[in-house]
């Protein structure tokens, strides 16, 4: 990630998008966080990476609804990481309102990140019991 140190806005940083490659500015504070994730389902993506479907709690659902309604045509940048480091996973264009509280990440996660998500959050679909 390249940061422009001459930038005057203390609440945003310059960032290079992955697909399509271009420079943008993003807010320093996240709009959604892991605290708002209620459940997750991870799955293999077509490009060899992993994807995830997040179910957000009521606060996250309202935030996502507001973001998707007021920022149509803009990009949502998804980061995954720990307190020590984070990595830009995917850039999603906001093309439609989302009011159901589901946030998909269709690709871009590593296998290790997918496993960590499964360990940190309850499954979106409960595991079936074997008889």
Describe the sheet with the most strands. 3 strands, antiparallel
Mean pLDDT: 86
CATH class of the domain at 31-120, named: Alpha Beta
Regarding quaternary structure, what we see is: single chain
What is the first-to-last residue Cα distance?
A: 50 Å
What is the CATH fold-level name of the domain at 31-120?
Answer: Gyrase A, domain 2
Shape: globular
Pairing-aware structural class of the strands and helices? alpha+beta
Helix content: 10-25%
Our Rg estimate from Cα atoms comes to: 16 Å
DSSP helix count? 2
Proportion of residues in β-strands = 35-45%
Describe the strand arrangement of the main beta sheet, using strand numbers: 3-4-7
Which architecture of the domain at 31-120 would the CATH scheme give at its second level? 2-Layer Sandwich
Low-confidence stretches: 1-5
Task: Please write the string of helix (H) and strand (E) elements.
Answer: EEEEHEEEH
* Strand element count: 7
Written description of the protein model:
It is a single chain. This protein has 131 residues and is α+β, with helices and mostly antiparallel strands. It has 2 helices and 7 strands, in the order E-E-E-E-H-E-E-E-H. The strands form 3 sheets. The chain has a 3-stranded antiparallel beta sheet. A two-stranded antiparallel ribbon has the order 1-2. It has a two-stranded antiparallel sheet with strand order 5-6. The longest helix has 13 residues, at 58-70.
């Amino acid at each position: 990630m390249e940061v422009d140190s001459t930038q005057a806005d203390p609440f945003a940083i310059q960032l290079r998008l992955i697909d399509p490659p271009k420079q943008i500015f993003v807010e320093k504070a996240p709009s959604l966080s892991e605290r708002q994730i209620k459940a997750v389902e991870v799955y293999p993506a077509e490009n060899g990476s992993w994807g995830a479907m997040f179910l957000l709690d009521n606060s996250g659902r309202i935030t996502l609804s507001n973001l998707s309604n007021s920022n149509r045509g803009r990009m949502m940048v998804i980061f995954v990481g720990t307190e020590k480091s984070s990595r830009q996973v995917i850039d999603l264009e906001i093309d439609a309102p989302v009011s159901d509280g589901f946030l998909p990440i269709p690709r871009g996660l590593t296998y290790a990140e997918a496993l960590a998500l499964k360990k940190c959050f309850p499954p979106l679909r409960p595991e079936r019991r074997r008889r």
